[in-house]
Every structure is written in structure tokens, then in C-alpha cells.
Amino acid sequence: MPAPTIPTTPGVPRVTTVPASSPAPTAEVRVRFCPSPTGTPHVGMVRTALFNWAHARHHGGKLIFRIEDTDAARDSEESYHQLLEAMRWLGIDWDEGVEVGGPDGPYRQSQRGDIYQDVIERLKASGHIYESFSTAEEIVERHRAAGRDPQLGYDGYDRDLTEAQKAAFRAEGREPTWRLRMPQEDLTFTDMVRGEITFRAGSTPDFVVVRANGKPLYTLVNPIDDALMRITHVLRGEDILSSTPRQIALYRALIEIGVAERVPEFGHLPYVMGEGNKKLSKRDPQANLFHYRDQGFTPEGMVNYLALLGWGFSADEDIFSREQLVERFDASDVNPNPARVDLKKATAINADHIRLLPEAELAARLLPYLQAAGVLGEQITEQQRALVTAATPLVQTRMNLLGEAPDLMGFLFIADEDLVVQDDALKKLGDDPVAVLDRAITEIEAVPADTFAAAALEDALRTAIIEEMGIKPRLAFGPLRSAISGRRVSPPLFESMELLGRASSLARLRSLRDRLAAAA
After folding, report:
1. What confidence score (pLDDT) does residue 305 get?
2. CA-wise closest residue to 157 among 55, 339, 9
3. Cis (ω within 30 of 0) for the bond into 106?
4. What is the CATH number of domain 359-410?
5. Do the Cβ atoms of 299 and 89 come closer than 8 Å?
6. Most buried of 38, 76, 111, 449 (most Cβ within 10 A)?
7. Could you give the CA distance from residue 156 to residue 159 in angstroms, rounded to a whole number?
8. What does the radius of gyration of the chain's CA atoms come to, in whole angstroms?
């Protein structure tokens, strides 16, 4: 490959004719998710992973999952494993990358140093990058001396240093960085989300790609990885949009030295905003993906909601499955305007997905939340498991989050004498709750143990309390509900009594009757 033509005027970029975006139309779609392992998984970051996954699956392509772990001071193995946990929890699988391998590994930047060094040497030899000895202070002073804005950035001073000038700088003890020669032309590309975008010539100065200590910067290694892994489409956050001209220029250089085949297509996803219409911060609880999981969001509900942060399934439909997401997802349909986290909407979507789960599947998912709340112990008995399974249909339509299971079902696992009736469950019990409880006890005592079932209980108690005592339906069963569950709101009353059994139901009714009678 012949060396590129280099202009002789400092600060004037060279001309290149490689198109800004040139994916082969028939190429297999290859996208990547490449987070840094710092902190806990962020909602915006995971949304990016989801959109890349959906794009790959929609086009029958591949998702490459690699880790950008070159910041030793901030990266951690704990964060790395949390990333894996987040992807697996949401069901975002990948075809090549960490943990699964592939032809272009290793898939952690910290293990690819030799690969980067080889490309750096080729870029040096071709003249695409050059030594720069200028300090930040010198750049500012040159701008001021010329009457320019000192914030303009690098001025191209070192582009055409002679060997004698370089030797003089080295004699002063200076170690050079290496900068990429930016092209002398407007850089225009068609963003998959935002349409045509142009960066004017000269708006992006030559930038450092290799530190003075020889270590490459992210701005270099990221395109190298994309090139060697044959990435065709890059869906990423809007916050990186301004770096696109640098990366396009780097792809062009990599094409010219035979490292890259193409410049990928770019799509920049909208910001995710939190409360107060502020950009969602990593420190915001709403940003932590595991915060949602711990509350009881299902993977299905979370995937559904994350997809709606910038994309829409249809004008009149918000609930969809992973399969439907894959079928319909198109990056061109992503809204470029900021997306706002709406917890009320997210919770409602999750509730719909809970309703869609098979009862046995939902019962299994409730167990960890019941254990975490201390309702169930570490070792779950078959009797407890059966009771959860039986109670699940009673709470499925009443739940918004899996984490609500302990409040809704906990009374079924408490000894009768340990049940605490909440204060608000003692309010609005009607004019004579003691009489209602007395009548209920009498009716239940007459029901044989072998026919103690919800239908028989409901029939007997409705007849006795509503028809014969003349109590309004709205007030008739409040005292019974409070006695049985300890709460004003509970699963269906008669079905709950059936699950508790005759003895426990009577014990709880008598306990509240005695308490109210004593307080009268």
C-alpha cells in the first residue's frame, strides 16, 4: 500500500476519497455491545445492548459482546460479572464474545495489546498518524498569539516537523503522542436514527490515538476491534455522536492499510432521561437495572419497557414479546428525541407480563422473593411449594411486581397466633364487626372439614351475612378479610380460607372477634 499524500501546510488535513459509510449490501449483519466493566449495569447501557440484539436477530445476523477493560483504575471483575448477569437475566444472548469465544478473540481489550500494537506500527509506517510534541499549554498560547479562541483545540503544529525538529524536542526530554491526520473535507454520513449528518471540514482537529507512553487510546482501539470483528452496524448512545468523525476517519485509515473492509453504518440512540427531565445518572436509583429486578420486574416486562425507551411497537399497542420485538424492530423507527423513564408505565407493562405467565412459571418465580422477605426459609418444603402454587392464581391478577408476593401471600405461611392485623385493616369494619364474625364462625363450624371449599363457604356466608343479617355486600366481608389475612386488601377471601383450612380459618376469626369484643 503506497503512503498517503500528506499536505505541507500545518493544520491542513489530507484529502481522502473513501466514502464515509460503505457497508457491503450483502454483508452479514454484525453488531457489537462493548461496555466498560465499571459500576452496576445502567438502564441506558442495557437498552443499547437490547437494540443491538434486536437489530441482529431481526436481520439474521450476529451480536458480538466484547469488554472494554483498559481502565485499570475503574474496571472491576465484579462489574464484569454483573454485566454477564444482566444480559442473561434479560435473555440477551450473543453469538461471539466473552464466555462463548469466537474467531476474532480475545474479546477483552486488556488482552489485545499485541493486536493494537501491530496496527499502530502499520499506521505509523503509512503516515496516517504522526508524532506530536506540543503540550496543552503551547497549543493554547499559539492560538492566543494568533488571535484565535484558545479553546479551539489542537492546531496541527506538529504535522510536518522535520527530523531535526523532532530530535530537538527529544533532546529536551519530550516524549511524543501520536495523532491521526483528519481529512480535509466535510464528513457526511447517514445515521440510521437521525438521517444525514455532516461534520464540517476542520471542525474536528487531529486527535491523539497513542499516548506518550505508547498505550493506545479508546478512540483507536474501538475502531480497530470493530474492523477486525467485521462490524457492519454500530448502534450506540447519542453521547458518542460527536466522536463519529474521528471514527470515520480512523476507519478510512484502517481501510487504506488493509485492516478494515468498510466503514460501518452508525445509529445514535436517544438519551434516557430521569425525573425532572434530567439525563439519567449512574447514581440515580432508576438507572440501576438490578433495582428493577430486585423490586420484582420480570425479564419479559423489562425487555418490553426498555424497548419503548426510544422505539415503538405500534401506535396502539405497548405489550409485546421478545419474538415480536425481533420481528418488528427497525433502527430507522427509533425516535431521536430523548426518552424518559416512566416508572408508572414500566410497572403497568410488567403487570401485563405477569398476567401472561403460565401459573406454574409464575409460582416458581415468586419463590426467591418469598425467601428474600423471610416468608420462606432457605429450604422450601414440598408443602410450602404446593401452597405457593395453589395461591398463585389468586394473586396473579393483583400483582404489578413479583416483589409484592410477600405482602399478598405471606399470611398463608404465618402461624395463626403470629398473624398481625394491620392498623388500617381494623378501620371501616362496619357497625358491628363482632356480630359479623360471630355469625361467620357459626356458619363455618357447620361446614364439614371434607367439604371446606371456597364455593361452599361463599354460598353459606353470603346467605348468612348479606341476606339474613342485611349487611351491604361492600361491608359484609371486611371483618373476615382482616381476620384471615391481617390486611384490608388480600387475595380472594373464600379461596384464601380454603387454602388455610377450616381450623386456621376458625382460629383467626375467633382471634379478631375476641380482640374487638374486648375493646368494645
Report:
1. 98
2. 9
3. yes
4. 1.10.8.70
5. yes
6. 38
7. 6
8. 33
Q: Rounded to an integer, what distance in angstroms lies between the CA atom of residue 153 and that of residue 207? A: 9
418488528: which residue's cell? Answer: 328
Q: What distance in Å separates the CA atoms of residue 409 and residue 370, rounded to the nearest whole number?
A: 9
Q: pTM for the whole thing? A: 0.90
Cα–Cα distances in Å, from 58 out to 45, 48, 51, 173, 334?
20, 15, 10, 55, 15
The neighbouring-strand residues paired with 63 are: 31
CATH class held by domain 275-355: mainly alpha
Query: Does 282 belong to an annotated binding site?
Result: yes
What pLDDT does residue 43 have? 96
Residue ranges covered by each domain of the chain: 112-269, 275-355, 359-410, 418-519
CATH of 418-519, one of 1.10.150.20, 2.40.30.170, 1.10.10.350, 1.10.3430.10: 1.10.10.350
Q: Which residues pair with 42 in a beta bridge?
A: 288
CATH number of this structure's domain 112-269: 3.90.800.10
Supply the pLDDT for residue 74.
Answer: 85
d(CA 376, CA 371): 5
**Cα angle: 51, vertex 56, 58; to 5 degrees:** 90
Q: Output b/e per residue, 302-335; b: 16+ Cβ within 10 A.
A: bbbbbbbbbbebeeeeeebebeebbebbebeebe
Q: How high is the mean pLDDT in each 10-residue block of the chain (520 residues)?
A: 31 34 67 95 97 98 96 88 98 98 97 98 98 96 94 94 96 97 95 97 95 95 98 97 97 98 97 86 87 98 98 93 97 96 96 98 99 97 98 98 98 97 91 96 93 95 96 92 95 98 97 93
CA–CA separation, 209 and 356 (whole Å) = 51
Strand pairing partners for 131?
178
pLDDT at 26: 55
Report the C-alpha gap between 265 and 270 in whole angstroms.
Answer: 17
Q: Which residues of 404-442 are buried (b: 16+ CB within 10 A; e: fewer)?
A: bbbbbbbbbbeeeeebebeeebbeebbeebbebbebbbe
The answer to whether the CB of 53 falls within 8 A of the CB of 65 is no
Q: How far apart are CA 120 and CA 123, in angstroms?
A: 5
- Catalytic positions, please? 282
Instruction: Specify the DSSP class assigned to residue 199.
Output: E
For residue 195, give every residue at least 6 positions away whose Cβ sits within 8 Å of its Cβ, in sequence order, or none.
none
State whether residue 77 is helix, strand or coil.
Answer: helix
Cα–Cα distance, 366 to 403 (Å, whole number): 8
